Amino acid sequence: MSDANATTPRVFIARHGETEWTINGRCTGNAEIPLTENGISQVRGTGEVLVGPGKLIDPAKLAHVFTSPRQRAVVTLDMLLGPTHKERLEREDRVTVTEDITEWDYGVYEGLKPHEIKESRANRGLPKWDIWTMGCEGGESAEAVQERLDRLIGEIYKLQTPHMDGKSGQPADVLIVAHGHILRAFTKRWLLYPMSFPFTMMMEPGAIGIMSYAHHNVEEPAILVGMAFPQTK
Fold first, then answer.
1. Binding site for substrate: residue ranges?
2. Are 116 and 21 spatial neighbours (Cβ–Cβ below 8 Å)?
3. Which residue pairs from 198-204 have beta carbons closer than 8 angstroms and sit at least 24 positions apart in sequence?
């Protein structure tokens, strides 16, 4: 029997759609880079398949939505939910725009490609860059990122703890819309791993991931690595 089913609260993590800097592999933190046409298509496609009444992400079952303030995330959220559901959730004070889930502040690495960062560090006699242990020069440390993610996760625990047994009848799911690096960091912290833990993850632009809890227990946060979809009649 599955430990995490429809009665256990879930946290959906959504990465914004493709941007020009996504294509080029540039570090994109605070820069406001818009979605490409393909990025818009990615998000709309994800929304059509996975978001809506009776679908994986049912807006009526969302207890809260957290989004990064960067426009590429805000626009992605707007397209995923659609104006009707978004406006209802905002009226009910269930949407929070927060720096706690904004992308890692890359500091002097903003706008650079990985090979450019590697060359720059090598020219200065610095070791190979590992964001998970070194953070970013002139930007955020791994400790600073962990602090804000842990704060957000604490808020989510408070929202979902009353609904662990699925019997409250109230919306219990959470949706987070953010960025590639910070969502991978969020996943590590959700699973209680240190930032330095070597856990390799991939998340495509416009993709959705799912976190939940094992055994309906808030003290057992888990990643939902697969789920089944009932046949529609």
1. 28-29, 72, 103-106
2. no
3. 203/13, 203/15, 204/15, 204/42
- pLDDT(12) > 70: yes
Global pTM reads 0.94
Assess whether 16 carries a catalytic annotation. Answer: yes
Q: Is 147 a catalytic residue?
A: no
- Residue 149 sits in a domain whose CATH number is 3.40.50.1240
| Model confidence band, residue 233 (pLDDT cutoffs 50, 70, 90) | low
Question: By the 8 A CB rule, do 64 and 94 touch?
Answer: yes
In the chain, the number of structural domains is 1
Question: Considering the domain boundaries, does residue 65 fall inside one?
Answer: yes
Per the structure block, which two tokens stand in for 118? 């590697």
Residue 230 resides in a domain:
no
- pLDDT value, residue 2: 37
Q: Give residue 231's pLDDT.
A: 73
> Contact, 201 vs 190, CB < 8 A?
no
Q: Which of 18, 103, 110, 140 is catalytic?
A: 103
**What single DSSP character describes residue 55?**
S
Query: Domain of 98?
Result: 3-104+141-223
**The pair of three-digit structure tokens given for residue 1, joined into one six-digit string:** 């029997």
Residue 136 lies in a domain: no
Q: Is 118 within the bounds of a domain?
A: no
For residue 121, pLDDT over 70 is answered with yes
Q: What is the pLDDT of residues 155-199, one digit of tens each?
A: 999 999 999 987 778 899 999 999 999 999 999 999 999 999 999
